[in-house]
Design a protein that fits this description.
With 224 residues, this protein is an all-alpha fold. 77% of the residues lie in helices and 2% in strands. It has helices at residues 3-33, 38-49, 51-72, 80-99, 105-133, 139-169, 181-207, and strands spanning 212-213, 221-222. A hairpin with a 7-residue loop joins β1 (212-213) and β2. The termini are close together.
Amino acid sequence: MKLRTVLKIISFVLLIFSTMTVLRYPSTRLLSSGILDGDAGHLICEVFNSIEVKVVELGLYLLFAFHMHMLDFKFPKAEFGRYFRYDMAVALINYIVITMEYSNVSFGYIAKMAVEMASCFTTFLCGWSLCKTLRNHGMMEVGISYFVLSCNHIVYLIVLIVQFCILMYGPSRDVSQFLTPTWMTTQWFLLMPILFFSRVLLFRGTMKLKVHRHKHDDSMGVEI
């Protein structure tokens, strides 16, 4: 199977899982309000909120980055592969950080903010290196999708900073204050549309992938 076909398949499945991520909070709200009821409603919420879905989505993200790293080998002067390797490492660390339990809430927030800051840089560098190196056949759109994903990390970093300041200087140091419907809905509107848009751009970009030809020698086609 050609590399561009694999990238198309992974980006499509990533779009599906991102759609599930986007619907995770609304489905929970509909269930708690009684609008989404019955066994089917409970099953939908259980699937959307399951740890297995989150692990599979992480695996797909890493798999896409790994194949972008492989694509780098087809272009001798390209350097974008290393940024995808950095992003893979940060994504793994991010998963470890968010699944750990912290006796000190402040330490947990600091760790998460540090990882989000790293994610801002790695996703931006992935997009920038792609747009700089491969300027046709959909790769520009794939690069833009990583710029949008970087914006998602920036917004989430700002949210974490605001919450951290509230915890440090507010009247309460209880993180449950950020689990209220107001906070959760605000975070959803700030983050989920950006995430979904980045996945749509990623899928559209991979669907445009064709055989790349070097600028200096149009007779030399490099199979992707």
